[in-house]
């Protein structure tokens, strides 16, 4: 009776295949750097494991039985799959293959993550990147739980650099530009400063990170912004700016959402900035696949216009 597949010893099957190719036990032993008695013993053990006769006497030589040829026919498929597994494992160890899961805040997805994924598809097509939009609090929970491998957030919302669980890696300095309606009196004002907009109606989120960033930037410029309208998404904010309902601070990473009726002005001396960081579980940054993704993110960050 045939034994379970677990009894199929890969090393012994390799010896059997070599015997088929070489024709004699002596030649097989030479190729495999074994003794002829060791070859014979291994093949005898394989026959017992499988419960079939693999060799039969043929003069002074041995030849493979029909059962041996049947076994090898299936073994070839096993060897081929092992070769594919070995190649894939080599790619994984070199960072050419594998899976990396990213949790990133909303504006980072189109501005940083998507271009990095496109770059990796060209350079390392076997490396799969999975993206999950998540703001800082959720992203770090996912990272801590092992649900993502890399989190992108603003530095202001990242854990402390002393946190033993995470390694923080600076990625990008993102300037904040001011969005004005196209017909605004200050739209073409030379040397525009944030303080020049102290008496303007402002549009920003009612709470959360962007509200904090806007109010902190304005307070650093010497005034508290009057919040005329509240919105969380850039499409809504820029639509209201275009309609002349107020002005807004907009990160340069969100510039793709700009509208024709909106003028984006780079602020002069007091331009606020936000800092984007990548975080990984401490020690994981040395993993080859994760290092590839981090390198691609840095490449994208380095070609973005700076303020």
Key traits:
single chain, 307 residues, alpha/beta, two-stranded antiparallel ribbon, 11 strands
Summarize the model shown.
With 307 residues, the chain is of the alpha/beta class.
Describe the secondary structure blueprint for this structure:
Elements: H1 10-22, H2 25-32, H3 36-50, E1 55-58, E2 61-64, H4 66-93, E3 98-104, H5 108-123, E4 127-133, H6 136-145, E5 150-154, E6 166-181, E7 201-203, H7 209-220, E8 226-229, H8 234-242, E9 248-251, E10 262-265, E11 273-281, H9 288-303
Parallel strand pairs: 3-4, 3-5, 7-8
Antiparallel strand pairs: 1-2, 5-11, 6-9, 6-10, 6-11
What does this entry look like structurally?
- The protein has 307 residues and is an alpha/beta fold.
- The protein has helices at residues 10-22, 25-32, 36-50, 66-93, 108-123, 136-145, 209-220, 234-242, 288-303, and strands at 55-58, 61-64, 98-104, 127-133, 150-154, 166-181, 201-203, 226-229, 248-251, 262-265, 273-281.
- The strands form 3 sheets. Strands 3, 4, 5, 6, 9, 10 and 11 form a 7-stranded mixed sheet that branches. A two-stranded antiparallel sheet has the order 1-2. The chain has a two-stranded parallel sheet with strand order 7-8.
- Helix 7 links the parallel strand 7 (201-203) and strand 8.
- The longest helix has 28 residues, at 66-93.
- The termini are far apart.
- The relative contact order is 0.14.
- The model has no long low-confidence stretch (mean pLDDT 87).
């Amino acid at each position: 009776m045939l034994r379970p597949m677990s009894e199929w010893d890969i090393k012994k099957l390799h010896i059997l295949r070599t015997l088929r190719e070489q024709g004699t036990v002596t030649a097989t032993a030479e190729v495999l750097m074994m003794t002829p008695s060791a070859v014979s013993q291994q093949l005898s053990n394989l026959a017992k494991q499988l419960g079939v006769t693999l060799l039969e006497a043929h003069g002074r030589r041995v030849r493979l039985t029909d059962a041996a040829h049947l076994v090898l026919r299936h073994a070839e498929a096993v060897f081929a799959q092992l070769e594919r597994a070995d190649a894939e494992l080599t790619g994984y160890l070199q960072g050419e293959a594998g899976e990396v899961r990213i949790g990133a805040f909303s504006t980072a997805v189109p501005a940083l993550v998507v271009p990095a994924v496109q770059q990796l598809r060209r350079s390392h097509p076997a490396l799969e990147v999975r993206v999950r939009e998540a703001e800082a609090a959720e992203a770090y929970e996912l990272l801590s739980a092992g649900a993502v491998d890399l989190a992108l957030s603003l530095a202001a919302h990242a854990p402390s650099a002393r946190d033993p669980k995470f390694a923080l890696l600076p990625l990008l300095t993102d300037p904040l530009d001011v969005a004005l309606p196209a017909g605004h009196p200050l739209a073409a004002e030379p040397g525009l400063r944030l303080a020049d907009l102290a008496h303007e109606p402002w549009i920003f989120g009612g709470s959360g990170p962007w509200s904090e960033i806007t109010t902190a930037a304005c307070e650093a410029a010497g005034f508290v912004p009057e919040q005329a309208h509240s919105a969380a998404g850039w499409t809504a904010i820029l639509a209201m700016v275009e309609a002349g309902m107020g002005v807004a601070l907009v990160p340069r990473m969100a510039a793709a959402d700009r509208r024709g009726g909106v003028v984006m002005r780079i602020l002069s001396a007091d331009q606020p900035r936000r800092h984007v960081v990548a975080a990984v579980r401490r020690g994981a940054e040395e993993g080859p696949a994760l290092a590839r993704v981090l390198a691609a993110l840095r490449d994208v960050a380095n070609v973005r216009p700076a303020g």
